[in-house]
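User: Xylan1,4-beta-xylosidase. Structure?
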Amino acid sequence: MKRALPFLASVLTAVAAAEEFEVNIRVDAGGSMGPLEPIWRFFGADEPNYATMKNGRELLGDLGEMKPGEVFFRTHNLMTSGDGTPALKWGSTGMYGEDGRGRPIYDWEIVDGIFDAYLENGVRPYVQIGFMPEALSVKPQPYRHHWTPRAKYDEIYTGWAYPPKDYAKWEELVFQWAKHCVEKYGEEEVLRWYWQTWNEPNIGYWRGSREEFFKLHDHAIHAVRRALPGAKVGGPDVAGGPGGDFLEAFIKHCMEGKNAATGETGTPMDFISFHAKGWPKTVDGRVQMGIANQLRDIDRAFEVIARYPQLRKTPIVIGESDPEGCAACQGDQLAYRNGTMYSSYTAASFPRKLDLARKRGVNLEGALTWAFEFEDQPYFAGFRSLATNGINKPVLNVFRMFSMMSGERLPVASDGALPLDEIVEKGVRERPDVGALAARDGKRITILTWHYHDDDLPGAEAAVSITLVGAPEGKPVSVAHYRVDQEHSNSFTMWQAMGSPQKPTEAQVTELKAASELVKLDDGIDLVAEGGATAFKLDLPRQGVSLHVLEWD
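Assistant: Predicted structure:
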């Protein structure tokens, strides 16, 4: 009876078919909304040392394979004191210490191993300059925290979160690190990286004042530019969209304030970064997502940046962009993370981030997913991650779909999609959101379609008709169809069908790995466009995501 899942799926499919509703989507293959920016290609995690472990290296390889050399990884604790032993919301590199006379001792071995793991797998560093080494902290004790998923969040803010006792030593440490990176990896390589100071300095991650953070940032950025004048620098990776008035104050400081390191006016700002999170909760025993909260954070931050005409072309990276805030936390409201709620939320939210940037007239370059993997934890433990014990989750397959899209973004109209302003204001609480994102790259068109609702409940299937206008006339078109849903590209439902084993056999692991790959359905057909239009249909279940790839000679 452990394999009852296919029967259950067939029952749900029959119910959905009886209640299915029609959706019409029109894709203009001859139009253009400008280049489709691959904003999906940024990832991150609290725990830096997982990158050098077996499952971490394997996952880095999966990420880098999607767009080699153009995927970036941001992590906390790159400067934290310790021996490199990871734990939840903790990591360390031990890069800085002092001798008995207070003279600096630098050690790059652990941090080099982390960056080596990235680069060997086609991933580049988004360098977070933090946190404070124990020997530099104005309040070093207690330093190491021992946080658990059910602990109070404030328990993590220990000695690493405080300002330096000596800003000159802080700047010199950052300079020596950046200089070492240039010497080890080469100037051309390091010029591709992002460098930013700290994390969420407007909340507990920074135990100093705002002015002290600006000082910290000025010295860090000056240090990086001393080592590499053309380095890409920015910030402030503030929490909560604009973080009240913090983002604007930071922008004003960088544009017209006195630089604490140089005494001159202004601090270099090659990119602007902030964080935006959703707000899931439990309602009547089910998870209800809060996509509106995340999109509002983004919109408010974009609005602040758009006030400055000189910044409209400045790249923006949403340095953490997720359905909620704590990857290593657990709880009933976080039960969406293993299955198709997470994957469908991701598919529905990323195009809206692009739409908000277009609405505000700003330059969105990236939206960083703060999710990686956790070593030595139970299978599907409820953390926000892309993989569990080497088994990729459904959400990773949506990123694989994104990676297959390139070229010009095409105009799309869907009578099943909710208006942008409605989602930002209220989320997806009444009828579902069935929309599409499309792109054209030469003789190739990609169409991503999603079926999303904030409530994690079964719902009617969408009978979707896609009409492609402006398609090449008289040419045979091949269509490949990829799908993520309850039955496809889904290791979680396979694991449940096995009886949720915490010690799967070798054969079961092989089966789970196969289930974690992106599935290509067998319904691909050759089409011939007539009169400049081609139509095809698909049945898309609730929380399903499809990608159609159309190619012709």
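The domain at 5-32+408-552 is CATH 2.60.40.1500 (Immunoglobulin-like). The first helix runs from residue 5 to 19.
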